[in-house]
Design a protein that fits this description.
The chain is α+β, with helices and mostly antiparallel strands and 139 residues long. The chain is built from 5 helices and 6 strands. The chain starts with a helix and ends with a helix. The chain binds zinc ion (ZN) (3 copies).
């Protein structure tokens, strides 16, 4: 069956490979960029939106995807080296104002920010808005 790669991937992350999770993961593997819940829903028209959402939340919990919160939208991108214990993908993201795609800048480190005394960092997100390489090539 065609979903063997996905099944193995989920088992390695200790996630039970349900049919829905396999389909969502298969779609994520086919995406080059971060996708929103709506995009996953459009790609899987027979699936229930709340089931897709639950799959994405499970993936996030077990280090399969990380989420990028944009102003009114959350997108999800596949993790590269994360585990259920810790997300290691602390990289900036780039949002293209023209084509609306969101790209992982995996090779760029987040800037170290010196917080004032008695402030404790819990999460650091870095989202850059601009024009992506593809849109720049057209212009
Ligand atoms: Zn991650
Ligand atoms: Zn673009
Ligand atoms: Zn990312």
């Amino acid at each position: 069956m065609a979903l063997q790669k996905e099944e193995l991937f989920l088992k390695n992350k200790n996630i039970k490979p349900t049919a829905m999770r396999l389909l969502v993961l298969q779609y994520l593997f086919s995406c080059e960029e971060a996708v929103s819940l709506n995009q996953v829903e459009e790609a899987l028209p027979n699936a229930d939106k709340s089931t897709i959402f639950r799959s994405l939340k499970t993936f996030e919990e077990f280090g399969v995807v990380h989420s990028i919160r944009e102003a009114t939208l959350t997108k999800y991108a596949l993790c590269k080296t994360c585990t259920a214990e810790v997300h290691t993908d602390k990289h900036p993201h780039f949002h293209c104002n023209k084509c609306d795609s969101t790209i992982c800048l995996s090779h760029i480190l987040l800037p170290q920010i010196q917080l004032p005394e008695h402030f404790k960092l819990q999460e650091q997100e870095y989202l850059i808005h601009g024009i992506c390489d593809k849109c720049n090539a057209i212009a």
